[in-house]
Amino acid sequence: PPCSREATSPCRVLRECTRAAFIHSSFTHFMSGAPNLSNAVINLAALRERSRQELISVLDSVRGRKALVLDQGIAGPLGLIAEASLLKEHGVEKMYHLLPGRLDTECKSVVYLCRPKLKYMKYISEHIHTHESEGGRSGVKKDYYLFFVPRRTNICERVLEEEGVFGDITFRYFDLDLIAFDDDVLSLELDTSYRECMLDGDKTSLFYAARSIMKLQSLYGLIPNIKGKGTCARLVADMIMRMRRELGPDEEPTMAPEIDTIILIDRDVDMITPVCTQLTYEGLVDEVYGVQNSYIEVDAEVVGALGGKDAPKPVPGKKVKYALNCSDKLYSEIRNLNFTVIGSLLNRKAKEIDEYYKSRHGMSVSALRDFTKKLATTQQEHASLNIHTNISEKIMRITSDPAFHRRIEAEQCLLAGTNPESSVDYIEECINKKDPLVKILRLLILLNATSGGLKAKQLEFFKREIIQTYGYEFIFTLNNMEKLGLVHSQQSKGPTFAALRKALRLVVEDIDENNPNDIAYVYSGYAPLSVRLVQQACRPGGWRQGGMEEMLRALPGPSFEETQVMPAGVSYTPVSQLSGAESSVDHHPVTLVFYLGGVTFTEIAALRFLSQHGSNDGSPSRDFIIATTKLINGDTVIDTLVDKVVPRSESGPAGPAGGALQGK
User: Fold this and answer.
1) DSSP string, 450-505
2) How far apart are CA 400 and CA 404, in angstroms?
3) Entry pTM
4) 167, 221, 313, 316: most buried, per Cβ within 10 A?
5) Using CA atoms, how far apart are residues 444 and 462, in angstroms rounded to an integer?
6) Residues 644 and 657 sit within 8 Å (Cβ to Cβ)
7) DSSP assignment of 187-245, as one string?
8) Which residues contact 354 (CB under 8 A, 6 or more apart)?
């Protein structure tokens, strides 16, 4: 069985074989759980097929059998577009994770697929130098191919030149951009996009976002309406316009647009939502387990023996991956619900399945035949029910803990503006108990955002307490948060959060989680600010009506609404001009909401709620597709702001020393 780097054998050959076996099996597993996209409102399978064909072209450009070396951040997303058998068909003999140390392979051709990061250039240089010094195991000089995903950078080439291996490598690129994670969710999976755009000033991921939108337009037609909020949103919109001007006369899409509107939103426009504890089923699964590339890693006992009663019993303590997407019928039903209603729903499903099994007694032959036809589907639902019951039981043990209740109470008080002093005391108490720092920082950001900043003495107090309790290393993290404006001294200019809360109805009292009539159910009373902006943008008049312009000015960055002129010969009828028959349920306009810097599962759930229930204001019903640079939660956002600190005496070529703090 695969094991971690720390537990691998000291034998290097065995270690490399173990890595190859691990990544190979993970690819098979990823594709087996990829969504079929059959219920997507536009043909997202075409987008996935294009990425698949581009990958095939990459592999076929290198003749013969080859070793494929992937950076670990790409391996998961790549598994959503290609299965192991496809890679084998196109010459891939073994697969490896891109790690420091020796790369032991007998393949003459070594193909690297990786993001343009400096550490990966160091790893590749180390591999080449090792092969050259040893002459290769087979005595044959190897050919190296480096495919940057999605583009090469000058600084990476410079590092390879300094390492003396630039001339040994053939350089190309692989356009892996938006990946369909579900039938309404697309992601670039750029792990550090929020930090790079908002903190480091690196706008590369914005170029990738703009280029991915151009690819969507080439597949689904020119998007007529572009709306956005935020500095990064403005930059992406400008890039889209410029890229369109640079197209040749025969390159513009000529099909009728399938997407009516794109709404671009910067993550820093709404930093309140991601730091709140998610309360939908999918959101809590992400908070507790951490969803990675549509998968969670759980104990084998949670999943059980999926192969039936003849399958081997799960090994205690072993971790397995389980897919979470629309291919799981039960999961599709419960994923967007508030967690408080999950227990009763699962109980009802269990009774329905039990009644179905009991109904076979005394059946006629024809009725038994119909029963048998549905048996396989029911057995799948039964297996899924057992798994989600096990998952929800673990989550319930956490949510029923008084400590969890206190955290939610503190968050709700801050959001509602009631008794904020108790929340301040709670944060101080958490520091004194040395609770996880990421929890402290999420609460501190929420306190700052809802209070218009912190009092100067209060800010210095929390900084001092955190550094003394958790270590000097986090000076850099706090400094990063201040640079981003996530914590700052109080400022008295413009509308406050209280004004935004009232104008946008961000807090809804007496929400009914069982039969919700507002998106606020996803946080048991708080409506995600970003989704309220989307909701308002889709109403007649958009952001220009009802005092919205003043509210938008209170949020970071510019807001804009623009219209693209359709190419000659392309017909398009605005939604406002559709007749009653044309605007029926079969012709809902499609809106693409693109989050620059990441989106949470609760925001996705709120947008799905709008798709299903509308805005209850007479505006046309819409279908939403959500695109993002990264699927995130509060923990992952904070992690990107943590700078790695490695004591000089402990650093070495093998990677970060034990105990070093790492930012992702």
Assistant:
1) HHTSB-HHHHHHHHHHHHHHH-GGGHHHHHHHHHTTSS-B----S--HHHHHHHTT
2) 7
3) 0.89
4) 221
5) 9
6) no
7) E---TTHHHIIIII---HHHHHHHHHHHHHHHHH---SEEEEESHHHHHHHHHHHHHHH
8) none
Length of the chain: 664
User: Hey, what's the torsion of the CAs at 421, 422, 428, 433, to 10 degrees?
Assistant: 180
Q: In 10 A of CB 100, how many CB atoms?
A: 15
Q: How far is CA 196 from CA 73, 159, 200, in A?
A: 16, 20, 5
Residue with tokens 């003849």: 310
Tens-digit pLDDT profile for residues 433-463: 999 999 999 999 999 999 999 999 999 999 9
Structure tokens at 32: 């087996």
**What is the Cα gyration radius of the chain?**
26
As a whole number of angstroms, the distance between CA 71 and CA 192 comes to 15
Q: State mean pLDDT over 204-224.
A: 95
- Residue 480's nearest CA partner among 608, 620, 337, 639 is 639
| Predicted pLDDT at 30 | 37
Rounded to whole angstroms, how far apart are CA atoms 664 and 642?
Answer: 8
Q: For residue 531, which of 184, 270, 338 has the smallest C-alpha distance?
A: 270
Beta strands in 230-371 (DSSP E): 261-266, 295-299, 319-323
**Would you call 140 helix, strand, or coil by DSSP?**
coil
pLDDT value of position 617: 59
What pLDDT was estimated at residue 496?
Answer: 84
